[in-house]
Amino acid sequence: MNILAIETSCDETSAAVVKDGKEVLSGIVASQVEFHKKYGGIVPEVASRKHIEVINPIIREALASAGTELKDIDAVAVTYGPGLVGSLMVGICAAKAIAYALDIPLIGVNHLEGHIYANFIPQSPNHPIPQFPFVCLIVSGGHTLLVLAKDHGKFQVLGRTRDDAAGEAFDKVARFLKLGYPGGPIIDRLAKEGDPNAIRFTRPMLGTGYDFSFSGIKTAVVNYVNKMTGDRKPATEDLVASFQQAIADVLVEKTIRAAKEFNCKTVALAGGVSANSRLRKQLKEECFANHLTTQIPPLEYCTDNAAMIGCAAYHHFRQERISDLALQAVASLRLV
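The structure assignment produced for this chain is given below.
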């Protein structure tokens, strides 16, 4: 079964052709980073207009790269939320048009569910996929959730951020320090040259439940810098390394604790911040120490991409969870 998948939830325009929910025949992503960099963040109106400009060429490229034509497509999948409503509408309109013209099923996919299914894309022919139940930590610029995946389509949110998402905190700290945009990759790079133990920032909500709060860590960085002057001012590398370590400690500790409480043998990581080298390394180490299996997608499937949407859509189709042509964008859509 060939699924044409479309993802336009934020500032990446992506299309992919996925066969049987596991073989990625093509995956094309057009980034808008250069257009938003001068603003220090994503401008929704600019994002939606850029999607309109490139959506058709990206779809054509995905089909050509897969060696397929529209007549070879059995269903079309699209992200319908959460995300920027203008951006979502571009992808949904394109998917509806294709589904209607070809008279094939339309499958709406939750963007967060898509991130979970990035772990179901085999990295090699013998690469294992997650076995249910498992715990998945979803960390991105707009979301931080800890999810218990019980089966296909059956998820329980154990905890979510009460304020800033982890990726949002990275971007805000980078903006405050005038490091550039996007902040996550820049901080990750600089932190490798710094001492993560140079400054002991508090680890908020570490011992209480599974919710997260990262606004306080961000504020702590701001206050620390404002208090330090002259020779007392810390090296930027030490500052961001300590900040990054505080966030990684909270994310990893809660994830491991959840896996133990719910008797899961596998821990999965997903979302744009899952590309962070410190987080990936620390989660692997802690999982190994606790006899847990770690599932982390390749870097190309950590950030927003259509391949993960196509993989999730395949399981929707198998369970006959098909959308109709009245599908609408839901900017604040929740996983459950």
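Interim note for the steering committee: The beta strands are 2-7, 12-19, 23-31, 75-81, 106-110, 134-139, 144-151, 154-160, 266-270, 293-295. DSSP finds ten helices and ten strands in the chain.
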